[in-house]
UniProtKB/TrEMBL annotation:
Organism ancestry: Eukaryota, Fungi, Dikarya, Basidiomycota, Agaricomycotina
Coiled-coil residues: none
Protein name as catalogued: Endoribonuclease L-PSP
Species name: Lentinula detonsa
Pfam families, per database record: Ribonuc_L-PSP
Xref: CDD domains: YjgF_YER057c_UK114_family (cd00448)
Domain of life: Eukaryota
Homology family: Belongs to the RutC family.
InterPro entries: RidA, RutC-like_sf, YjgF/YER057c/UK114
One Gene Ontology CC term in the entry: cytosol
GO-annotated molecular function: deaminase activity
Amino acid sequence: MPEVVFTPEANPVLPVFSQAVISKGTIYVSGNIGCDKNMKIVGDIKAQTRAALENIAIVLKASGSDLNYIVKANIYLTNMARDFKPMNEVYAEFFDKDRMPARTCIGVAALPMGADFEMECTAEIPEK
């Protein structure tokens, strides 16, 4: 049976999904937008990217993992032409340049709460 992950250290989620779910040693992290604990969007694309990745790191830690174990990331941007380069600058700060996860980046028409960035990911739980 899948295990729902909840940590009060991470930003709250809407009541229609979980922060993450663990199934068979894999963590499926729900989409994270760049907001604070009060669900307010936090500035430009760099700030939103940083806030979302920091929150994902908190959820992964609560799941027994961390950013180093992300296998696949999916990123959604509302303005690919404007935001792809600055988003990547911040994204690269969170990962070893020789061990980047697989990734897809998709341009979308809109994101929740007017966000410019959203990221979801799949990660492994490391063996102890």
